[in-house]
Amino acid sequence: MSDALIIARIDSGRASPSNLNLGSRPFNVAASGRSTEDNALEQSPAQIEFRNVTKRYGQVTAVQDVSLTVRRGEFLTILGPSGSGKTTALMLLAGFVAPTEGDILIAGNSVAAVPSYRRDQGIVFQSYALFPHLTVRRNLEFPLEMRGVNAGDRLKRVDRILERVHLKDFGGRMPSQLSGGQQQRVALARALIADPPFLLLDEPLGALDRNLREQMQIEMKTLHKEFGITTICVTHDQEEALTLSDRIVVMRAGRIEQTDRPEALYDRPASRFVANFLGEANILENLDCDVESNAPQPPGTVPMIRPERICVAAPGAPTRSDERQRQSVTGIVEDMIYAGPLRKYHVRVGSSVLVAREHAASGQQIFRQGDTVQLDWLQSDVRFVEA
Ligand SMILES: Nc1ncnc2c1ncn2[C@@H]1O[C@H](COP(=O)(O)OP(=O)(O)OP(=O)(O)O)[C@@H](O)[C@H]1O
């Protein structure tokens, strides 16, 4: 079932950074810089709630004790590696599978006894699931017919939605006569046409090539803004999650590891797992020095720094940061990779290899394999993550 696409808005009551039970860690504090939009979302009413939901298949626990609150209008992405329970969480919400324990509420009411076909939701799958023998127009009319909408209204609504997804001249085509991106737009239009209160997306763009995926990400974000529809999206694509979401839920082995806004998740991951899953992370272990930070190291944590926060320089070169705030180590370049406008260095320091990423600026010294370099960073850029 990993090829369904669904949109909705989820908020983990259990694991957001502000309520994670992590003692006195500095990242318990919600990141600053919230926009008016963020605040408005936080104040919007809860639309969907998972209350201690567990789903077992025999010996396998696919989802374990998940509690979430999705707010009206939110775009929430469930992100996690294969087998972490993302799709099961979505299928539970869609009513395709029933919880073993716990309850799911929509608009404050338990939906335990409501079959999926009676849940008013739009669903989009990676495989589009368009009817191949029906034209685009007939595909779009189908959900309206099911709801008893009369022919005149159906016509108007189909015209309107075709216009909104930029497919006004494609109503007479069969799905096989459309590109992948166009088929995905029809699938989205079909999910939205009956004005569902929320939309569920499972790996919505997984079948598209990279360029088209980026274009569709922008289109989906625009559509979400226009419709203001609560959306829950399941993906294992970090970039997609970062681009589209108001908030991201990171799942691991059936549980929620962390929930937060994309920037906050990247800048202040709670655990080594999240730090590594969302971007690249240097865990500052086994260096021949004590890593210093502006904050004391809480027990059970390890220091972490993102590659773009590390500067690479010749040994003894003046550093770019304030001396009192600076930490530096010496290492040997193992590898240097050009990645378009970026240079990525792998540098051996003791028994660790640190990754540093720098924007390629003109006049900047380039280091090669075997060169001795100095790596330095600001202590304030060090984060402590759960080991
Ligand atoms: N119908 C089923 N019967 C038995 N086990 C299942 C069933 N559906 C899912 N599982 C198991 O539950 C766990 C979670 O599966 P799920 O499909 O939710 O993960 P996922 O994060 O969506 O993975 P992927 O990204 O690979 O789709 C996995 O171990 C999977 O094998």
TrEMBL record:
Keywords: ATP-binding, Nucleotide-binding, Transport. This is Polyamine ABC transporter ATP-binding protein. SMART domains: AAA. GO terms for molecular function: ATP binding; ATP hydrolysis activity; transmembrane transporter activity. GO terms for biological process: putrescine transport. Belongs to the ABC transporter superfamily. InterPro entries: AAA+_ATPase, ABC_SmlMolc_Importer, ABC_transporter-like_ATP-bd, ABC_transporter-like_CS, Mo/tungstate-bd_C_term_dom, P-loop_NTPase, Transp-assoc_OB_typ2. Coiled coil: none annotated. It comes from the Bacteria. Residues 48-278 form the ABC transporter domain. GO terms for cellular component: ATP-binding cassette (ABC) transporter complex. Pfam families: ABC_tran (PF00005), TOBE_2 (PF08402). Transmembrane segments: none annotated. It comes from Mesorhizobium atlanticum.
